Amino acid sequence: MNSKQRPAVIAVTVGLPGAGKSSLCQRIENYARVSGHKDRVVLISFDDEEQSLSSECNNKETLTDFDTDIWHKARERALEKAKQALAATNDPIDESSKSIQVLLVDDNMYYQSMRVPFRQLAERVGAGYLEIAVDCELEEAMRRNALRESPHRVPADVLRRMAGRLEPPTPGRRSLHVKSDDDLETLFCAMRAASAEPEVNHEASRAAEAAASRASVNASATHQRELQLRRIVGEFIKKVPATSRRGAAALAAQVKSEIAVSDTFDVEAMAALLQRRYQEYLSFNPEL
Length: 288
Fold this sequence. Notes:
7 strands; two-stranded antiparallel ribbon; kinase activity; single chain; transferase; tRNA binding
């Protein structure tokens, strides 16, 4: 049986609190589990990470009040869990299988900078990347948010500010706009399409391009050096009497090979070296 690594996609949600992101993520997770799907879904929730950290700190105030330190730690933990999930579940599968691995990240991600670490992760591991914008009118999001119990309820003024600052995904193959109750099969089709077009590791690509550029420059420099060596030898041979040219040619070839492997190269120095070696050659062969 031929096997290969399961194609993977990192899908991050984008949207206001109350837009239905968590509900959509739970629907996706349940759908993959109970519908006979072979696709594997791993859900990472930023809210769950924050609540877990708050409980670990035994700080009841952080369950209702925003804590910047916990917020940052939760994001770091979520990213680390994403890395571990991709490493742990990307197991070989039957090559005839069309299943994919979905790493689903549940958060508002209202700034594009919040999504960058996950796109970079997709680049590093060769996974697809998809931003799922969960669209919802502000008033509806505020109505749903007001029904939440603390600590999940976001202050109304904060939610309004988030709505004004939300940076939607850039239109293109990496983004999809949905409603929280949209058809899931359409969403899975989009995630499969994203997994089939994995992100390019730009860091590795830049390193490869730099290496290729250096090799090209070195090759060009070597070629130019070879041309200069040939020109010097040619000019030297022309000045030598016909009776001495065979010996002079052998001498020039030897000097050329010595210069070719040296770290430094100087046109005048080589010409002087050739002339000096030729005079030595003549002193040992006075008949020439």
